[in-house]
Specification:
It is a single chain. The chain is mostly helical. It has one domain. The protein contains 22 helices and no strands. The protein has helices at about 1-10, 20-40, 40-45, 50-60, 70-90, 95-100, 105-125, 135-145, 150-160, 165-190, 190-195, 200-210, 215-220, 230-255, 260-270, 275-290, 290-295, 300-315, 320-350, 355-370, 370-380, 385-410. It is globular, with a radius of gyration of 21 Å.
């Protein structure tokens, strides 16, 4: 394909790597299309806008339309969009509110998070001789399977996992999540689980026998909200300040902490990570500046859009052949992590007498993040659990980066 574009345009791809505006146009149009499809059609909502954006990039790069590397991807999206998107999304992480309102669901969520970490180590030692860059991928998936896409992006950048492996892992991850969410819904209806766990919300829904299903979950979640020019200005000013101070602190600590032994080296990696400080500072602002944060609209929408741009970019360097050859093993890797998480949630949930719905939503929040957990609660009619599911998933955004950096550092990523 590159030879075709070389003969037609005198370059390897239809759009040159230095044509920033043409590449920006393709990226923004692709992301807009992905979001529109996700909110318009239920089949696209099930696939997710994230995967649609990634597929657009994958197809365009493999056809030789866009280059696999350029300034826009490498310096603008990785260097600015990803770090700026994270503090905007973490504005939802009011720790006082999370601990106060989530009750027992927080406990089972944290148990599941431990299961994710254990699963990462089990999967790594089972497959590290067969998959390249697996330590970085383990860190990436630990962050993702405790938090969500925001942590996935942060750990991919922190440990410099190659674009091809990030794309292949994303495909494996989303295939597995789709299967696992179906399994969780199936569990809610099986006699075995209903017999062995309490399930008050399921009983309430079955008694009422009414559900709302008029639009896609994505459209319902991202419904139109009030936002002003001041909100946009304050959001961008806030995230830039957080990233600047985080990079400053991380740089100072990286220089100050020696790496003469394994423990000090681990401390250097952990405290020298800009994402650890982005997470910490964002959490402090969300918790202790809750009145100011409550007046700031649009942070989640702006942050999510920036992460969608990242999702497009990670699809660009992916080779279809690499995905076909690498995804099956990565599917096994992520599968081991999910199974261990599930076992921790359901076994300890039984021991400590948690409700079946809390266990299902906590595991969903681990593996998929707050939006998928809230979406599942909405789809099943568990209206009282939508808020708690969203909050515990948001807690995962906070601890996911810490755990991902920890796992990556221990495994030597």
């Amino acid at each position: 394909m590159s030879s075709l574009w070389m003969s037609l345009f005198g370059r390897e791809t239809a759009i040159a790597a230095d044509n920033d505006w043409a590449l920006l146009t393709i990226m923004c149009v692709s992301v807009a299309l992905a979001i529109w499809l996700e909110q318009k059609y239920k089949w696209a909502s099930k696939i997710s806008g994230a995967i649609i954006a990634l597929i657009c990039a994958l197809v365009l790069s493999n056809l030789g339309v866009i280059p696999t590397s350029c300034n826009l991807y490498d310096n603008i999206i990785w260097g600015f969009a990803v770090p700026m998107g994270i503090p905007l999304l973490l504005l939802q992480c009011n720790m006082k509110k999370i601990w106060k309102e989530t009750g027992r669901m927080t406990a089972i969520f944290l148990i599941g998070s431990v299961g994710t970490i254990v699963g990462a180590f089990v999967a790594y030692f089972a497959l590290h001789n067969h998959i390249n860059e697996l330590a970085g991928i383990a860190a990436m998936m630990t962050g993702s399977y405790i938090g969500g896409g925001v942590n996935f992006a942060a750990m991919a950048d922190e440990f410099k996992v190659s674009g091809g492996m990030v794309s292949a892992t994303t495909v494996a991850d989303n295939m597995l999540m789709a299967i696992y969410f179906f399994v969780l819904i199936l569990f809610a209806g099986l006699k075995f689980f209903r017999k062995n766990y309490t399930h008050p919300s399921i009983d309430e829904v079955e008694a009422a026998t009414s559900k709302e299903d008029s639009q896609t979950l994505a459209a319902a979640f991202w419904s139109r909200k009030d936002i002003s020019l001041k909100d946009i200005a304050m959001n961008f000013a806030y995230c830039v300040v957080i990233v600047t101070f985080s990079k400053l602190i991380a740089g100072l600590l990286t220089a100050a902490i020696p790496t003469s032994n394994a423990v000090l080296n681990m401390c250097n990696i952990f405290f020298g990570s800009q994402y650890v400080w982005i997470t910490t500072l964002s959490m402090l602002v969300a918790t202790y500046g809750e009145k100011q944060v409550a007046q700031l609209h649009g942070s989640q929408e702006l942050g999510t859009y920036l992460i969608y741009l990242f999702l497009f970019v990670i699809g660009v360097p992916a080779s279809i052949m690499q995905i076909l050859t690498k995804t099956p093993l990565l599917f096994v890797f992520t599968g081991i992590m999910v199974v261990v998480n599930m076992l921790f949630c359901f076994v300890f949930g039984k021991i400590f007498h948690f409700d079946l719905e809390d266990i299902i939503l906590a595991s969903n929040a681990n593996i998929g993040g707050p939006t998928t957990a809230a979406g599942m609660a909405i789809s099943q009619g568990w209206s009282k659990l939508v808020g708690p599911a969203m909050l515990v998933g948001t807690l995962g955004y906070v601890i996911g980066n810490y755990c991902g950096v920890l796992v990556g550092g221990i495994l030597g990523a």
